[in-house]
Amino acid sequence: MSDSISHRKLTVETEESFGLDAAFVAEVATTLRAGNRARVKELVSGLHYADMADLLERLDSEDRKLLVETIRDEFNADVLPELAEVVRDEVMAALGFEDFAAALAELDSDDAVYVSSKLSAEERAQVAARMPQASRMLIEQGLSYAESSAGRLMQREFVAVPNYWTVGETIDYMRAVQTLPEKFYAVFVVDPRNRPQGMVELSRLLRSKRPERMKDLFDRDVEPVALDMDREDVAFLFKQRNLVSVPVVDKSGRLVGQITIDDIVDVIEEEAQEDILKMAGVSNTEVSSLYNAIIRTANSRFPWLFINLLTAFLASAVVGMFEESIAKLAALAVLMPIVAGMGGNAGTQTLATAVRALATRELDSSNALRITGKELFVGMINGLLFAAIVGVITYVWFDDIFLAIAIGVAMFVNLTVAGLSGIVIPLMLAKFNLDPAASGGVFLTTVTDVVGFFTFLGLAAAIVL
Prior knowledge:
The protein has helices at residues 2-15, 22-34, 37-44, 49-58, 61-70, 85-106, 109-117, 121-128, 133-143, 150-153, 167-176, 202-207, 231-241, 261-279, 294-320, 323-328, 330-359, 368-398, 401-431, 436-464; strands spanning 160-162, 186-190, 196-201, 225-226, 245-249, 255-260. By secondary structure, it is mainly alpha-helical.
């Protein structure tokens, strides 16, 4: 039986990008409801903690509670950071504060701080009261740093040795000490004042002879990061230098922790996810909206929908200025969404490129003018091409050369403006320390709708009518 389960899991992983099979989730749910705990344990045994988190998220609340009760004695603490916030709250309720605190104490300090930061003040106090003092102090210290800082992100477990040690002494130390981090990629070399001088990657350490001194091996190009450095800056440093680990220092330059690549992957994913949600007009709190209550989800989406409504009225007001023209020529009502829609889509393409470039620091004041000029010409080229295409189609459709000219000119103007706006709007928002991912789309669609409607209807009123 266990062989068939393992085979199915392997098949699932290779065919569905390591996802869980829906049939497997359904079988777990059915077995839970049947009360067959032994069979449930057999089904979920050997699941990676990330897959266990996925399983908990896919089950409904009642089945989730049953699963936690079933695997309570074998509950893997590493599941907690992988859970959506709403689901983690339910898991905590099922475990109880005592077992939840015990699980939290098993985590690496950075993961424990992350999970604790998602709890309410009351829940945090209840959990902290049941934790060992050392773990509690590490979490409290981590929470004292700004949410987006390196201090909140860093892991306090690391390996550091004096610069006068040999490779042999370092290896013997790592074999003997019981408090090594669960995962680490390098050994930091420090001076007598505990200030990092560099680091030696494990691959180089293991290839070196035992008598060699650590001070002769460490990489001097690795710069430590400060506790208050923004986590986006840390992620940029990892990307630029191809790092797997960096030391974190306090104000006096002493080594206090490390940041590893697995945490940076999470940062990059969270920042990208946040930008995507904001561009869609959805708040970042909806990362786990699949598990949120209906009212909470609706409330979080309302503000941006309301702003979009106001901008839609602005575009409608422009259309209303040409009400008589539209009444005289019904073709205007048929064609005007094409101009606005093409402008919005073209602008969104440029906006998405610009937001990404700003996030990755490929776009800044040093090349903003050149990139703006490039996007302007791209908009003009596409404007000319689509002006010709839509002009020909309009002439064939309505047999009106003046109407074809009007929509062709409007298409050229709107796509040119869209290309320019798609790069200028995020640059201006970034200059005023506003998030272009959050509001850029609203401004862009307003510009393209207003310009598109005004240009097309104005030309049609002047030329056709």
